[in-house]
């Protein structure tokens, strides 16, 4: 009797916990509901019933946003900048961390700390001098300026992640390779780098998202040019369409589709990447 | 992020591994650091040092800069925009860090259970953290318009008395901004805590239960002390991120109404790239830098006292 009563109470407890969380989730998801429903409404529909879900989805909003906002161009720019920056980050960051982790000298430790300092320094302090530097080198409104910036800006995180992983990785394999006569670069490329795959995954996930979403510096360097990335294009788009919210939301929807797709496909790795990466 | 520095020191001290084995290994050349160091020097080191110098000049990009001593900082103390920005930035940082940590912890504790819906909810709560802050800013700008969905929804569920001009009323605009930031990033804190919870040994909780500890006591005496490292990471990230807050504020309110939501990053940007007062704007950035370092130092000191071993 008492056992049955307890299990009934447990069941009720579980049920109310489940219900409570679902309720919290509904409140939390409300802006997403607004996002989707506004993107699918006609202006008349939006004015008449702002909260209801559209009965006749206005898919034309997406076509209009895509064409008038030149979002295809912006998305291509974002892909180019993100891919090249992430490739450079993995290349330069992993090999630098390798040297820093394998040399146990005061110098290598000092350089490592110098990199880590970059995790704290606000980019605002160097923002104007760096802008001037890019302008004097005639690099404004080019992919190059953005890629250089993103690589330098994200390197502290990348070096930190790779160095932490490398310190826990035994040096035996690469030593064996070197005994067999392989040079440093060959030993790194064929032995060490493949062993870094788990942390390379984390690095790619974190830096891709950071670079893809970045706004302030891209606004300064490539704003208003044909090279502008998605967040900058969306910012301009908002100004241009002022109060045509259904077009703005359709445009923003297009801009987040790539992120959401990757998130749903790789969410286990992404969540793990964030948790383990940030944990260090 | 000082945790990071701190851990680096700790792991070097405890682990003599590399040094011990150095004798029988060919040395990895320092040259491998050069490409990374070059990028880092151009993008971070040189501009930061240059900025640190320009903060004490009247540089405006048109004529040669002259040293003006502490003039920029004195002016900063009397100008209304940077003064509000300073107060707002501190308020945003402290309240975001505390509230987001609590909310993230609550979400993690709720989802670290056998709830049927836990995977779906985890995916949902974390999603905003991955999206561009610019888009989150515009989304909420619309949601919070006076005749927008937030007020409509409140009226629809009988809470019409709570409707507000969320971003237009100077007395609550800052609170609205803080709410948006927490909505976007609480999932990140949750994910960090979920990873931390996996490191809490089940046997320890069972042993405590056998000794008669209730649910609350197990949480307070076993789980929470073991989550201090996760708390340090989550709080450092949130703190440093919220001190530098720019994107969402810039697109949602532009710092207004009046100076109600100005942050140091937003004021700095306007002074530099709208008004062209490079020296003055860099002085604002230097203040921001000092605050980041001071907070990181204090926080690390404060939290380390609570750390225990599993």
Describe this structure in a few short sentences.
Chain B: It comes from Desertihabitans brevis. The complex is a heterodimer of chains A (about 280) and B (about 300). With about 280 residues, chain A is an all-alpha fold.
Overall morphology of chain B: globular
The number of helical segments of chain A is 13
So, the CATH homologous superfamily of chain B?
MetI-like
Count of discrete domains of chain B: 1
Rg of chain A: 25 Å
Class from secondary-structure proportions of chain B = mainly alpha
N-to-C SSE string of chain A, H for helix and E for strand: HHHHHHHHHHHHH
Treating each run of at least 4 consecutive H or I residues as one helix, how many helices of chain B?
A: 15
Unreliable spans of chain A: none
Nearest-angstrom radius of gyration of chain B? 24 Å
Strand percentage of chain A lies at under 5%
What would you call the structural class of chain A? mainly alpha
CATH architecture level-2 label of chain B: Orthogonal Bundle
Question: Residue ranges of chain B: pLDDT <50 for 5 or more in a row?
Answer: 1-24
Supply the CATH class of the largest domain in chain A.
Mainly Alpha
Shape, per Cα inertia axes of chain A: flat
Polypeptide structure, described:
The complex is a heterodimer of chains A (280) and B (310). Helices cover 81% and strands 0% of the residues of chain A. By secondary structure, chain A is mainly α. Chain A has 2 domains: 2-58; 65-279, MetI-like (MetI-like fold, Orthogonal Bundle), CATH 1.10.3720. The radius of gyration of chain A is 25 Å and the shape is flat. Chain B is mostly helical. Chain B has helices at 2-14, 17-21, 34-54, 71-78, 80-111, 118-130, 133-143, 149-156, 173-197, 202-210, 215-226, 228-243, 247-252, 264-273, 278-304. The two termini of chain B are 23 Å apart. In chain B, 46% of the residues are buried. Chains A and B meet through helix 1, helix 4, helix 5, helix 6 and helix 7 of A and helix 1, helix 2, helix 3, helix 6 and helix 7 of B. Chain B: The chain crosses the membrane at residues 27-49, 90-111, 123-143, 172-195, 224-243, 278-298. Chain B: Belongs to the binding-protein-dependent transport system permease family. Chain B: It is a multi-pass membrane protein.
């Amino acid at each position: 009797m008492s056992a049955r009563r307890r299990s009934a109470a447990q069941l009720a407890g579980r049920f109310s916990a489940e219900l409570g969380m679902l309720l919290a989730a509904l409140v939390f998801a409300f802006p997403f509901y607004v996002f989707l429903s506004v993107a699918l409404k006609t202006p008349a529909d939006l004015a008449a019933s702002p909260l209801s879900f559209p009965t006749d989805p206005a898919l034309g909003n997406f076509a209009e946003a895509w064409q008038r906002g030149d979002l295809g161009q912006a998305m291509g720019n974002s892909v180019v900048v993100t891919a090249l920056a992430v490739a450079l980050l993995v290349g330069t960051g992993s090999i630098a961390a390798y040297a820093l982790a394998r040399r146990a000298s005061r110098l290598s430790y000092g350089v490592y700390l110098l990199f880590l300092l970059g995790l704290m320094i606000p980019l605002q302090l160097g923002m104007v001098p760096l802008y001037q530097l890019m302008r004097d080198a005639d690099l404004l409104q080019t992919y190059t300026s953005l890629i250089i910036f993103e690589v330098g800006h994200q390197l502290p995180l990348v070096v930190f992640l790779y160095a932490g992983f490398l310190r826990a990785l035994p040096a035996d394999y690469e030593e064996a390779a070197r005994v067999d006569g392989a040079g440093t670069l060959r030993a790194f490329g064929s032995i060490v780098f493949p062993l870094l795959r788990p942390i390379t995954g984390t690095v790619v996930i974190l830096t891709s998202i950071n670079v893809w979403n970045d706004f302030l510096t891209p606004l300064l360097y490539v704003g208003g040019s044909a090279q502008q990335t998605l967040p900058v294009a969306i910012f301009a788009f908002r100004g241009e369409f002022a109060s045509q919210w259904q077009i703005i939301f359709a445009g923003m929807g297009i801009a987040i589709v790539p992120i959401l797709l990757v998130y749903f496909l790789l969410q286990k790795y992404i969540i793990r990447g964030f948790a383990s990466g940030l944990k260090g | 992020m000082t945790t990071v520095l701190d851990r680096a020191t700790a792991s070097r001290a405890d682990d003599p591994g590399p040094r011990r084995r150095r004798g029988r290994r060919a040395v990895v050349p320092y040259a491998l650091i050069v490409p990374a160091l070059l990028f880092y020097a151009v993008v971070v080191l040189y501009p930061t040092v240059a900025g640190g110098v320009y903060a004490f000049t009247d540089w405006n990009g048109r004529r040669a800069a002259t040293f003006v001593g502490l003039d920029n900082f004195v002016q900063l103390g009397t100008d209304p925009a940077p003064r509000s920005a300073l107060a707002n930035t501190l308020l945003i940082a402290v309240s975001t860090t505390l509230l987001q940590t609590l909310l993230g912890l609550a979400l993690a504790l709720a989802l670290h259970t056998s709830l049927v819906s836990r995977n779906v909810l985890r995916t949902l709560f974390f999603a905003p953290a991955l999206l561009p802050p610019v888009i989150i800013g515009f989304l909420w700008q619309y949601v919070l318009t006076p005749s927008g969905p937030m007020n409509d929804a409140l009226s629809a569920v009988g809470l019409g008395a709570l409707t507000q001009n969320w971003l237009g009323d100077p007395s609550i605009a800052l609170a609205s901004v803080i709410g948006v930031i927490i909505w976007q990033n609480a999932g990140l804190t949750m994910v960090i805590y979920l990873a931390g919870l996996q490191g809490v040994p089940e046997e320890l909780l069972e042993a405590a239960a056998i000794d008669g500890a209730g649910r609350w006591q197990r949480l307070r005496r076993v789980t929470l002390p073991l989550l201090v490292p996760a708390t340090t990471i989550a709080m450092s990230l949130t703190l440093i991120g919220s001190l530098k807050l720019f994107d969402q504020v810039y697109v949602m309110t532009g710092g207004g109404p009046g100076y109600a939501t100005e942050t140091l990053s937003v004021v700095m940007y306007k002074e530099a790239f709208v008004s062209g007062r490079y020296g003055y704007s860099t002085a604002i950035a230097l203040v921001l830098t000092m605050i980041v370092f001071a907070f990181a130092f204090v926080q690390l000191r404060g939290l380390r006292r609570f750390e225990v071993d599993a």
